[in-house]
Design a protein that fits this description.
- It is a single chain.
- The protein is α/β, with parallel strands linked by helices.
- It folds into 3 domains: 11-133, Methylthiotransferase, N-terminal domain (Rossmann fold), CATH 3.40.50; 143-403, Alpha-Beta Horseshoe (pyruvate-formate lyase- activating enzyme); 409-465, OB fold (Dihydrolipoamide Acetyltransferase, E2P), CATH 2.40.50.140.
- It has helices spanning 20-35, 59-74, 87-92, 115-125, 150-153, 176-180, 188-200, 225-236, 271-279, 296-302, 308-321, 340-353, 380-403; strands at residues 11-16, 39-40, 49-54, 81-86, 105-107, 131-133, 158-162, 164-165, 184-185, 205-209, 258-261, 283-288, 326-333, 357-362, 409-418, 421-425, 437-439, 448-456, 461-465.
- Strands 2-1-3-4-5-6 form a 6-stranded parallel beta sheet, with helices on both faces. Strands 7-10-11-12-13-14 form a 6-stranded parallel beta sheet.
- Helix 7 packs parallel to helix 8, helix 8 (225-236) packs parallel to helix 9 and helix 12 packs parallel to helix 13.
Length: 466
C-alpha cells in the first residue's frame, strides 16, 4: 500500500487550541486527511486517529493543551492513535511525553503537511514508543499552505488567510521565534490563489493573519510589502474579473466583501498602509495592533518599539484618513520592573488614544525568553490587580464608542441564529475577540444585511433590520 493511500473507513477527530494561526493549520490538516479518504468525526470515541493541534505560547495555554491530550488518552481505545501536533511538541519535543500518557506521535508546526504518511507510519510500524516528526529548524514554509481550502470553508462566511509564519521581532517576553522560527512570507501567488478559492466557496470575509502581518515580505527585502499585497488581493479577488480562474459553480458576483487586518506590528505600519486601506472600501477600517504597553520605559525593557510620538502621529493619520476607523490593541500588565508610575502611564496612554477595543494579559514568565529572569518580577496578586484596573478603566471608553453608533446604519454579517435572535458582527468586530451586534430576529446565517443600531452596552450593540 502506498504511504499516501488510506482505506476509506479510517476516521479522524481534530481538536484545535490556541490562536487563529492554529485554525489555519488545522484546516490544512483536515484537508489533507479528507483528500486521503479519511472521514472527519465530531466525537473522539468514533475516531481511529485523535489529533490535538496544541498551543505552547503561555503557561495557561500549555496546561489547557496537556489537559486535552490527557483527557483523550484516558478514554483511548487500544487501536486508536493519539497525536500531539503544532506548537507544544515543537517547543518542548520529547519532554511532552512526560506529561501526556499514551501518546503515539508528535508532529511539529511546519511538519503537519506530512500528516498522512506520518499516520501511515504510526499504523504500520507499531512502534512501542511515540514517533517524532519535529524539524530541528523552521527555515522553510510547506508548499501545502497553498492547499485548496474550498472544501473546509464551504458554507462559512468568514475565513482566515495566513500570509506568513514565524516571527523576527525581538520581543523579550515572547517564545514564538524559538519554536516557530524567523518570519517567512508565503509566495504571493500562493496567497492570491487561496483567496480566489475562498471567494469561490462564497466566503464573505477574509481575515489576514500572521505572527506579524506588517512584516510580510521583509524576509525577501520588501520593507513595506503588506500594502502592495493587500492591493493585489483586493483587485484580484473578484471572480467576475477573473473568468479563467472561476471555480465550477461559482457565481459571477462572488467576491470578498470584507478584508480585515490583524496582528500588525507598530514598528512596521506605514503611511502607504493607510493609503491602501483608504483606497479600497473592501478593506474594512479596522486595525489590530498589539502595542503591549503605553509607557516608553516598559516598552524598552520589552524590546518593543517605544517612539510614542511617532506612534501617536500614525494613529492620528489613520483616524483622520479613515472616518469611523477602529483601532484594537492588546496590553501586558505586570511586566518585570513595571512601577506604579509606569502602569499609570499606560492608563494615561489609553485615555489619550481612546482605543475602540482593548485586550489585556498578565505577564507570564516563560523560560527561554530574555524576560524570564529579569529583576523586579511582580507578584501574581499585583498583576491581577492591575489587569482588573485596566479592564475597568477601558469599559467607559468602550461604552462611549458603542453609544456613538446608536441611530446609525451598519452592514452586518450574521454569525449565528437561535432563540428568536441573530448574532452578527459589523466591520468594527473581529471574530471571537470583539463584541457582537444582537438582532431580535432570526436572519439567514452567513448573509450580510443592513441594520439600524438601537442600543449599546459596554461590548455589544443592539439593532433591528432595515
Amino acid at each position: 500500500m502506498s504511504k499516501n493511500k488510506t482505506p476509506q473507513k479510517l476516521t479522524f477527530y481534530l481538536l484545535t487550541l490556541g490562536c487563529p494561526k492554529n485554525i489555519v493549520d488545522s484546516e490544512g490538516i483536515s484537508e489533507m486527511l479528507l483528500q486521503a479518504s479519511y472521514h472527519s468525526v465530531t466525537e473522539p470515541a468514533h475516531a481511529d486517529v485523535l489529533i490535538v493541534n496544541t498551543c505552547g505560547f503561555l503557561k495557561a495555554a500549555r496546561e489547557e493543551s496537556i489537559a486535552a491530550l490527557n483527557e483523550l488518552a484516558d478514554n483511548k481505545r487500544k487501536n486508536q492513535l493519539l497525536i500531539a501536533a503544532g506548537c507544544l511538541p515543537q517547543r518542548f519535543g520529547t519532554e511532552l511525553i512526560q506529561h501526556v500518557k499514551k501518546l503515539d506521535g508528535l508532529i511539529g508546526t511546519r511538519s503537519w503537511p506530512d500528516i498522512v504518511p506520518f499516520i501511515y507510519k504510526l499504523r504500520s510500524e507499531k512502534q512501542p514508543a511515540p514517533l517524532y516528526h519535529l524539524p530541528e529548524t523552521a527555515d522553510t514554509l510547506p508548499e501545502t499552505l497553498a492547499l485548496n481550502r474550498q472544501q473546509v470553508n464551504f458554507g462559512r462566511a468568514s475565513a482566515y488567510l495566513k500570509i506568513s509564519d514565524g516571527c523576527s521581532a525581538p520581543c523579550a517576553f515572547c517564545t514564538i521565534p524559538s519554536f516557530k522560527g524567523a518570519n517567512l512570507s508565503r509566495p504571493r501567488e500562493h496567497i492570491l490563489d487561496e483567496a480566489q478559492r475562498l471567494a469561490s466557496a462564497n466566503v464573505q470575509e477574509i481575515i489576514i493573519i500572521a505572527q506579524d502581518t506588517t512584516a510580510y515580505g521583509r524576509d525577501r527585502g520588501e520593507l513595506d510589502g503588506l500594502p502592495s499585497l493587500l492591493e493585489a488581493l483586493v483587485t484580484d479577488s473578484s471572480i467576475e474579473n477573473q473568468p479563467s480562474r472561476k471555480a465550477p459553480g461559482a457565481k459571477a458576483e462572488n467576491f470578498i466583501k470584507w478584508w480585515r487586518l490583524m496582528y500588525s506590528y507598530p514598528g512596521h505600519v506605514s503611511p502607504r498602509l493607510i493609503e491602501v486601506m483608504a483606497t479600497y472600501p473592501q478593506i474594512v477600517p479596522y486595525l489590530d495592533m498589539p502595542l503591549q504597553h503605553g509607557h516608553p520605559d516598559t516598552l524598552k525593557r520589552m524590546g518593543r518599539p517605544h517612539n510614542m510620538d511617532k506612534l501617536l502621529r500614525w494613529i492620528e493619520s489613520y483616524r483622520a484618513t479613515l472616518p469611523g476607523a477602529v483601532l484594537r490593541t492588546t496590553f501586558i500588565v505586570g511586566y518585570p520592573g513595571e512601577t506604579e508610575t509606569e502602569f499609570q502611564g499606560l492608563l494615561d496612554f489609553m485615555k489619550a488614544v481612546q482605543f475602540d477595543r482593548v485586550g489585556a494579559f498578565a505577564f507570564s514568565a516563560e523560560q527561554g525568553t530574555a524576560a524570564f529572569d529579569l529583576p523586579n518580577q511582580l507578584d501574581e496578586e499585583t498583576k491581577l490587580e492591575r489587569w482588573e484596573r485596566l479592564m475597568t478603566f477601558q469599559q467607559p471608553i468602550s461604552l462611549e464608542h458603542n453609544q456613538q453608533m446608536v441611530g446609525k446604519q451598519l452592514e452586518v454579517l450574521i454569525d449565528g441564529v437561535g432563540d428568536g435572535v441573530s448574532v452578527a458582527r459589523s466591520y468594527r468586530d473581529a471574530p471571537e475577540i470583539d463584541g457582537y451586534v444582537v438582532i431580535e430576529k432570526e436572519l439567514p446565517q452567513g448573509q450580510m444585511i443592513p441594520v439600524l443600531i438601537t442600543g449599546a452596552t459596554v461590548y455589544d450593540l443592539i439593532a433591528r433590520p432595515i
